[in-house]
Amino acid sequence: AVQITRIFFYLLAALWLAVGIGYIGQSDGRLLFHVIAGLMFASIFVFIALGMNITKKPVYWIGVVFLAICILLTIFGQFGLADLVALILFTIPLVIMLARRKEFLQETS
Questions:
Q1: How many CB atoms lie within 10 A of CB 10?
Q2: Region at 80 (left for phi over 0; alpha for psi -120 to 50; beta for the rest)
Q3: pLDDT tens across 86-101, in order?
């Protein structure tokens, strides 16, 4: 379960990289575009850091909260096919983390 979740976190980082690059390509130069793109690129590093340290207790709970926030933001925005894919990719690791919590919190790696 831990390794599968790590893979999902790295997959989510790659997804945000692709989305961020696409978003920058649509930029019209307004500050808001740059702020949103910056948040997208920051989330790449968050997902990688969470994936690397997911078996540490505080990081595990930060990961749970971060995924829950991502799910809520996905649901309450304009919802399309890309959002559905993102929602699935956010939900799978969250469900694994909650269902197999003991595996995450017992490992020392």
A1: 16
A2: beta
A3: 999 999 999 999 999 9
